[in-house]
């Protein structure tokens, strides 16, 4: 049985063409360098995005600029997406190198992309990238962070994001309070991100799956799942199938959960 609580998990690892032409794009600082650490740098990257939006047939649906990486949800043909991101990243790299008196690469390899094939996964990705600053303790709540698209949704004012996504948002959520409530929900999806954050996502999802299973099996406490041989085997298999991971990774994740819960 799959004990996922919310969402539709369909992330992909390799570069391929999306059937919807919508992609979750990430770009990371080389060697985990905080290439957007200064507020001015985040403003400048946003300025570059706006500059090139008028030159390419791309539509941004959501974005978030973190200290060492960025997230953007973009609708575009794949070849145009590549051109757009190449121009944006190259211009920012030139600015960053000049500002800091350095040479060489600024970004880790090429940008990453995963296909977004369903409406549900689209909104799950929007929620995930908006929540990045909160989880990283860069903001107290999702509405106070200045360098994500959350304010544009709150104010119904498309600046970086395309006006079409505001219309889509209104049809999906009716009002901003519903959108905020959606951001408070947990899911068991994992999203393209820096390695440490993906690991954190997996661990968080494992706890959600455990709690959901406890509800289905009608046990009073989550730990009872791990104490029962049959139930813990079902939980282990659910980790593997729900998160689409190998048996080795499922075992490692299970041992982390076991240590976290049963040693308290």
Q: How would you describe the overall organization of this protein?
A:
53% of the residues lie in helices and 9% in strands. It has 264 residues and is α+β, with helices and mostly antiparallel strands. The protein folds into 2 domains: 162 residues, Transposase IS200-like (Alpha-Beta Plaits), CATH 3.30.70.1290; 68 residues, no CATH class. The protein has a 4-stranded antiparallel beta sheet with strand order 2-3-1-4, with helices on both faces. The longest helix is centred in the middle third of the chain and has 23 residues. It is globular and about 60 Å long. The two termini are 28 Å apart. The N terminus is likely disordered. One of its GO terms (biological process) is DNA transposition. InterPro entries: Transposase_17, Transposase_17_sf. GO terms for molecular function: DNA binding; transposase activity.
Spell out the key features of this protein.
four-stranded antiparallel beta sheet, single chain, 264 residues, disordered N terminus, alpha+beta, globular, 10 helices, Alpha-Beta Plaits
SSE map:
Elements: E1 22-28, H1 39-53, E2 59-65, E3 69-75, H2 78-100, E4 112-115, H3 119-135, H4 150-155, H5 163-173, H6 176-183, H7 195-217, H8 223-227, H9 229-243, H10 247-262
Helix pairs in contact: 1-2, 7-9, 7-10, 9-10
Tell me the distance between the termini: 28 Å
Number of strands: 4
Number of domains: 2
Weakly predicted, low-confidence segments = 1-13
In CATH terms, what is the architecture of the largest domain? 2-Layer Sandwich
Molecular shape:
globular
Report the C-alpha radius of gyration, rounded. Answer: 20 Å
CATH class of the largest domain: Alpha Beta
Query: For the largest beta sheet, what order do the strands appear in spatially?
Result: 2-3-1-4
The secondary-structure class comes to alpha+beta
GO molecular function, one term: DNA binding
Pfam families: Y1_Tnp (PF01797)
Protein name: REP element-mobilizing transposase RayT
Domain Transposase IS200-like: 18-132
């Amino acid at each position: 049985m799959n004990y996922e609580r919310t969402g539709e998990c369909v992330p992909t690892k390799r570069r391929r063409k999306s059937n919807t032409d919508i992609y979750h794009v990430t770009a990371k600082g080389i060697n985990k360098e905080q290439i957007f650490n200064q507020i001015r740098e985040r403003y400048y990257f946003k300025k570059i995005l706006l500059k090139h939006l008028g030159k390419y047939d791309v539509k941004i649906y959501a974005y978030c600029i973190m200290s060492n990486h960025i997230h953007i949800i973009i609708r575009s043909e794949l070849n145009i997406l590549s051109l757009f991101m190449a121009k944006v990243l190259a211009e920012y790299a030139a600015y960053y190198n000049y500002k800091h008196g350095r040479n060489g690469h600024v970004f880790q390899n090429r940008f990453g992309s995963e296909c977004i094939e369903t409406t549900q996964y689209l909104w799950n990705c929007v929620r995930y990238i908006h929540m990045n600053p909160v989880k990283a303790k860069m903001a107290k709540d999702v509405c106070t962070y200045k360098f994500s698209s959350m304010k544009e949704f709150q104010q119904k004012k498309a600046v970086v994001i395309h006006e079409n996504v505001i219309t889509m948002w209104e049809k999906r959520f009716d009002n901003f309070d519903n959108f905020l409530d959606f951001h408070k929900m947990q899911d068991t999806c994992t999203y393209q991100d820096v390695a440490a954050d993906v690991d954190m996502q997996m661990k968080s999802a494992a706890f959600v799956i455990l709690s959901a299973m406890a509800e289905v099996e009608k046990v009073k406490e989550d730990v009872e799942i791990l104490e029962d041989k049959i139930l813990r085997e079902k939980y282990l298999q659910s980790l593997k199938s729900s998160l689409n991971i190998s048996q080795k990774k499922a075992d490692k994740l299970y041992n982390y959960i076991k240590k976290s819960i049963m040693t308290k």
